[in-house]
User: Fold Peroxiredoxin from Staphylococcus simulans UMC-CNS-990.
Amino acid sequence: MAEHDFIVTTQWSGGRDETGTVKGDVLNESISIPSSLGGVGEGTNPDEMLIAAASSCYIISLAATLERAHFTDISINQSSVGTASLNNGKFKMEKITHHPKITVDADQKEALEKRLDKLLKIADNNCMISNSIRGNVEIEIDAVII
Assistant:
């Protein structure tokens, strides 16, 4: 089994109304509690980063899956929504819904429509973030071909 380490460092001083930082190979961002949850809302936050990780992983996996299926000249624009709940004082991400809009040449549209459901599942099964959260967070994909 091959392994790869992804390293980030975080820093925080003070209480919940402060800000910290998260740094990785490329990532360098302030972090805080979102203003919608009573925090200062500066920089990003773990909830947003979870959705961003899931979304970016899925779109890359989908692009690779479509390429392997010989769909060329595609473009994907995607929004992803994370639905969280507060239960007994604990926050939990319940569901992440990806909404990819796949633009493909007209001569490939019908072929993609026929194979889309299978290709969407393959992409989800090849996404490391989906594989890491599956069983704990529901993953839904609502794709549109343009």
Summary: DSSP finds three helices and seven strands in the chain. Strands lie at 9-12, 20-23, 28-31, 75-87, 90-103, 138-141, 144-145.
